[in-house]
Design a protein that fits this description.
This protein is of the alpha+beta class. It is built from eleven helices and 16 strands. α3 links the parallel β3 and β4. α1 runs antiparallel to α3, α3 crosses α11 and α9 packs across α11. It binds zinc ion. The site of zinc ion (ZN) has 6 residues, from loops.
């Protein structure tokens, strides 16, 4: 077993007692993983610290000029997989190992970073650590609580951190470039039989909570043409948005929660609530209009009242074209097949990519599983990804 696979196996035990891996932000399980990874980085001669935002940072003090960072995250969702984030961090460690072994001396300092709480699975608000590193104001999360009623401030305090000091973690302006390897968490690469996805951009998106209000009534005595059935409106809206996304080819949309009031097999739904999650890289600016127009059309035709609340809106992030080409070249040098693709989910690279040139590569996810104990990437694909990452670092840091 190679060192990369041994590391993956070792780290998967931290928080891996139950079904899948549960390694939430600021927990002893996560810090145990930090200790393991930190020890590997120190063996490779890197100086290791945990910054005030809880990011594990290893620095290879070598060369001169702005450092090149490679990173991802070691935290997980509840009952997540072994690969999401973790493979990216460990591939970064392994890339340094390969460069050391080859006797490559970088012309620039190299940093390996595991960002705190990418998933936001404990307190909400994803990309805490990379956000702090990139200078985002996170003080608004102060009063967020986990499922045990512990606030973020308290959780940080118990782990020896102070929320007020998080702004000190802003180091993005020192970097020259950022690279991240991640599992795809989707089926595209596996279907195409391709080794490496070269990510050109990360979608932006918005989410909405929608409420249609009609008139409840008796399911048998109210004539069909007189009904104001809120669920019929919700169902039509979901289909209209799906069709719109299908015909565009570059938008995804999801209606993931639906509830009906008052609820009852013989009662016409008087109200229906649904959530809409919509994402795109190039058509981000149109997304809100697309959602509102679809909903308003349905509301008008079904004679329903409509309420729309926007839950969040996050702009997309185009990755650096020069780094896209570098990763393609690195993949070619390592004999890996590759294709360009868009990331449909957010990553730490999105926070950094707004401030420094960032590049990202995906390795295939078996069955397309993500955020699931079924997550899997074939060992050869993990190792090939790490070699491409190492070659990419070499090309950037020469
Ligand atoms: Zn991830």
């Amino acid at each position: 077993v190679s060192e990369l696979l041994a590391d993956l196996e070792a780290v998967s035990r931290f928080g891996g007692e139950g079904s899948g891996v549960t390694r939430l932000a600021w927990t002893p399980e996560l810090f145990a993983a930090y200790d393991y990874v930190g020890a590997r980085l120190e063996e490779l001669g890197l100086e290791v610290e945990v910054d005030p935002a809880g990011n594990l940072v290893g620095r290879w003090h070598v060369g001169s000029g702005p450092p090149i960072a490679v990173g991802s995250h070691l935290d997980s969702v509840v009952a997540g997989g072994r690969f999401d984030g973790t493979l990216g961090v460990l591939a970064g460690v392994h890339a340094i190992r390969l460069l050391r072994r080859r006797g490559f001396v970088p012309g620039r300092p190299l940093w390996v970073i595991s960002f705190m709480d990418e998933e936001g699975a404990r307190f909400g608000g994803s990309c805490f650590g990379s956000g702090a590193f990139a200078g985002r104001d996170l003080s608004g999360l102060e009063a967020e609580t986990d499922r045990d009623g512990v606030t973020l401030r308290e959780a940080m305090g118990r782990a020896g951190f102070d929320l007020d000091r998080v702004p000190e973690a802003k180091r993005v302006d020192e970097l020259g470039a950022y690279l991240e390897l991640h599992v795809e968490q989707g089926p595209v690469l596996e279907r195409a039989g391709t080794d490496i996805g070269v990510v050109t951009g990360i979608v932006g998106g918005a989410a909405f909570r929608v409420r249609f209000t009609g008139t409840p009534g008796h399911a048998g005595t109210t004539p069909m043409e007189l009904r104001r059935d809120a669920f019929a409106g919700a169902a039509r809206a979901a289909l209209a948005l799906r069709d719109r996304a299908l015909s565009s080819g570059e938008i995804t949309v999801n209606v993931g929660e639906v509830s009906v009031e008052p609820g009852g097999a013989s009662t016409i739904p008087g109200a229906a609530e649904l959530t809409v999650d919509i994402r795109s890289l190039r058509r981000f600016a149109e997304l809100e209009t697309i959602v509102r127009e679809a909903l308003e059309t349905v509301a008008r035709e079904e004679r329903l009242e409509l309420g729309v609340e926007r839950l969040y809106s996050i702009p997309p992030c185009e990755l650096d074209e020069a780094l896209v080409e570098t990763i393609e070249r690195a993949a070619g040098d390592e004999g890996a097949t590759h294709m360009r693709m868009v990331s449909g989910s957010g990553h730490d690279a999105m926070e950094l990519g707004r401030r420094v040139p960032a590049g990202m590569l995906f390795v295939p996810s078996r069955g397309g599983f993500g955020h699931s104990p079924d997550e899997h990437t074939e060992p050869e694909r993990c190792e090939l990804g790490a070699r491409v990452l190492a070659r990419g670092l070499q090309l950037v840091a020469e």
